[in-house]
UniProtKB/TrEMBL annotation, chain A:
It holds the Pfam family SBP_bac_1. This is Extracellular solute-binding protein. Residues 1-23 form the signal peptide. It comes from Streptomyces misionensis. InterPro entries: Bact_solute-bd_prot1, SBP. Keywords: Cell membrane, Lipoprotein, Membrane, Palmitate, Signal. It comes from the Bacteria.
UniProtKB/TrEMBL annotation, chain B:
GO terms for cellular component: plasma membrane. This is Sugar ABC transporter permease. Signal peptide: none annotated. Residues 10-22 have a biased composition (Basic residues). It comes from Streptomyces misionensis. The lineage of its organism: Bacteria, Bacillati, Actinomycetota, Actinomycetes, Kitasatosporales.
Length: 429, 314
């Protein structure tokens, strides 16, 4: 007997209706009142931290649950690869954890979608505990409010290969500190090595434009502005560097990982990194480690770039008091300091960087890197605009590549990049 | 209640043969039974094929983003495609991939199958060796090829040794695409070789013997006996490989970086879908429109291959 149309329609409706609930949105969720009793269950998500810091977070959670009886924190950790995709899937599916480890560029779209809690409303009393610049790093241009507690800060040093500097007739104890010095040294390195050793393996990023002195966005935060005279000047110099093999020939499609590998194999002389890389060099490239030099990031503004991690509270949490209390607990001065002693990161809490741990030398390389980084952090700037999405990074990268290949002028390339980024910004709403 | 098993007879009718009572009665089939049996399959198909497809079609007419529900925008996404340079680059590269990979994957596995067809001692080793790339992880394979083709890799070292000099396999947009095609062909050889081996086993030996008696050489026997006998398999291989070549992602992604090579010039359409539609700021509506184009081109490719086959038949 053939199935009736009505039965078929009912079956399809039954199938599709539950699935249609999988879209973004939700029931509007939680309260913005954080003053209630701290109790009940919450979920806490970190970004690729379980492998190395399981004991630290287990202890942190146990201490919190002991301090606030009746609470239970479920900890989940996501791998670094595809973290933004995981967040977007959770956000769209209504399964975003109550407390989430984010960076400013991740928090911006979540805040715009109404999924990040405004801490200026729910946790303003904690504001004075943090460095003003760090607190402001999770404020979104075009929106009022602050959307994540600042957690740890970092500013990667610049590593360089002293042996390659020496071979090129450069002083290995005087690495470049400004872009002009960098370009001069890089051209000399390329010339002396017959084009076999490049100084850099990466094309300029938005942070390079910021450190060179270009304006990144207009004052209102409604459009990009890195196609100014400074931006064009930087790209013109990079083009000269690329033509003279001071920039690696595979730089146009390099990733941070592939650039790191080039430095490891001593094919390039300089590469940005973090204090964690030192151990990596020691085990993976002992001959490089013997000749490793450590210096500050290259900058023309006197400010290095600062990377900020944050702890966002899901605005739809069903347990606002506990979620806010836990996000604050993880990021308060005491716990940031204890985390900083386990890994090369820096606290975003006021006064923590004056601790002897960040000021007193003990003769080791690790301490030297830590002290130098802590010192530069005091006047560091977060040069990554919070609204600069992955799609915008790609747009900038493609136009920079075209300029380096000589397919268009630096001015035209940056004009096109700004136009594309503005269009994407408009589409983001 | 007892029932009589003795048939009543009437003089006007022939006597019925006594019927044996069945061990159990087969109940009348319910009209919904077939649907109940099909339900698990239908639910899976609906949830994982039908719903995503319908959803993609609907999204392609909206400006939906990852976290923000879209509004109906009509054909705006498709109009934008026409003016999007990156879309045309993706379409060009995907089409070039089909043009470069499909002929190689139709012919080379056939030659390989002919090579390992005969049962001689040790042939199993070679069959297994040729099949190994098929089961290897594409990520591992991609990384190995990146190491081989790097400027300081094995291939460039050999080229430098013989005086050719360094070749920018991973920095030149066209060489990058060619390198990715090479990886696809190398990885697919074993798979299609197995399909051809099965087809070759069905070619009657008598035909080859008769042709040989008539004086046909090896090449002539291949062209006049083997190829016609396995033509339908060749069409199948062409269809399968053209669809997968048009939808290529991993090889180009791994060799040319997620950015799609210098200035994104090696981006394929599926890479563009991934880059446009994922992440917290992904443009789901626009990516859905590109997906529909990929779907339409794939269907057209299949139809063209099948039509060419029918024409040959007639």
């Amino acid at each position: 007997m053939p199935i009736s149309r009505r039965a078929l329609a009912a079956a399809v409706t039954a199938l599709v209706l539950p699935l249609s609930a999988c879209g973004s949105g939700g029931d509007g969720g939680g309260s913005t009142n954080a003053s209630g009793k701290v109790e009940g269950d919450i979920t806490f998500q970190t970004w690729n931290l379980r492998a190395n810091f399981k004991d630290y977070f287990d202890g942190l959670i146990a201490d919190f649950e002991k301090k606030y009886p009746g609470t239970h924190v479920k900890w989940v950790d996501q791998p670094a690869e595809g973290y933004a995709d995981k967040l977007s899937a959770d956000a769209a599916g209504g399964t975003l954890p109550d407390v989430v480890n984010v960076s400013p560029d991740l928090v911006a779209p979540l805040a715009k979608a109404g999924l990040a809690m405004d801490l200026d409303k729910t946790a303003a009393k904690y504001r004075s505990e943090y460095l003003p610049g760090a607190w402001a790093s999770h404020q979104i241009p075009g929106m009022s409010g602050t959307y994540a507690f600042p957690w740890y800060l970092n500013t990667g040093p610049m590593f360089y290969n002293k042996a390659l500097f020496k071979q090129a007739g450069l002083d290995p104890e005087k690495p470049p500190s400004t872009y002009d010095e960098l370009f001069a040294d890089a051209l000399r390195m390329a010339q002396k090595s017959g084009g076999k050793v490049a100084t850099l393996a990466n094309i300029p990023t938005i942070e390079d434009f910021g450190r060179y002195g270009a304006s990144l966005m207009n004052k209102e935060g409604t459009g990009f502005a890195f196609n100014d005279a400074k931006g064009v000047e930087l790209l013109t110099k990079y083009k000269q560097l690329y033509d003279n093999k001071g920039l690696d020939t595979q730089a146009l499609n390099a990733t941070p990982e592939s650039a790191g590998k080039k430095f490891l194999t001593q094919a390039v002389a300089m590469n940005p990194g973090s204090a964690l890389d030192l151990d990596h060099f020691k085990t993976q490239a002992p001959s490089l480690y013997k000749n490793i030099g450590i210096t500050d990031q290259i900058t023309n503004t006197g400010h290095v770039n600062m990377y900020v991690m944050g702890m966002m509270v899901n605005s739809r949490t069903r347990n606002t008091p506990t979620a806010v209390a836990f996000a604050h607990y993880v990021t308060d001065a005491e716990h940031q300091m204890s985390f900083a002693k386990k890994v090369a990161i820096f606290p975003s809490t006021a006064g923590s960087l004056d601790d002897p741990y960040f000021t007193k030398e003990d003769g080791t390389d690790e301490t030297r890197v830590r002290i130098a980084a802590a010192k530069s952090l005091k006047n560091a700037v977060n040069y990554t605009p919070a609204l600069f999405s992955e799609q915008m990074k790609t747009a900038l990268r493609n136009e920079v590549d075209k300029a380096l290949q000589g397919k268009q002028s630096p001015q035209a390339a940056l004009d096109n990049a700004v136009k594309a980024c503005d269009q994407l910004l408009k589409q983001q709403g | 209640m007892a029932t009589s098993t003795v048939p009543r007879t009437r003089s006007s009718r022939p006597a019925r043969r006594p019927q044996r009572r069945p061990a159990f009665r087969i109940r009348r089939q319910l009209p919904t039974s077939p649907w109940l049996f099909a339900a698990p399959g239908l639910v899976v198909t609906g949830a994982f094929i039908l719903y995503p497809f319908v959803s993609t079609v609907i999204n392609s007419f909206t400006d939906r983003r990852t976290l923000i529900p879209g509004r109906f925008v009509g054909l705006a996404n498709f109009r934008e495609l026409l003016h999007d340079d990156m879309f045309w680059i993706g379409l060009r590269n995907s089409a070039l991939y089909v043009a470069g990979v499909v002929p190689a994957l139709v012919l080379l596995p056939l030659l390989l199958a002919l090579l390992v067809q005969k049962n001689i001692p040790g042939i199993t080793f070679f069959r297994s060796a040729f099949y190994t790339p098929v089961v290897a992880s594409i990520v591992v394979v991609g990384l190995i090829w990146v190491w081989l083709l790097d400027e300081r890799g094995l291939v460039n070292s050999l080229l430098e040794t013989v005086g050719v000099g360094k070749v920018g396999f991973l920095s030149d947009q066209w060489l990058l695409l060619l390198s990715a095609m090479t990886v696809t062909v190398w990885k697919g050889l074993g798979y299609y070789m197995i399909i051809y081996l099965a087809a070759l086993a069905n070619v009657p030996r008598e035909l080859h013997e008769a042709a040989a008696v008539d004086g046909a050489g090896a090449v002539r026997r291949f062209l006049t006996v083997t190829v016609p006998a396995i033509r339908s398999t060749m069409v199948l291989v062409a269809a399968l490989s053209s669809v997968s070549a048009f939808k290529v992602f991993s090889e180009v992604y791994l060799l040319a970086s997620p950015n799609g090579g210098p200035a994104g010039e090696d981006t394929t359409l599926v890479m563009l879908v991934q880059r446009t539609g994922t992440g917290l700021t992904g443009r789901v509506g626009y990516a859905s429109a590109i997906s529909l184009v990929v779907f339409a081109v794939t269907v057209v490719l299949m139809l063209l291959v099948l039509r060419a086959d029918r024409r040959e038949d007639s």
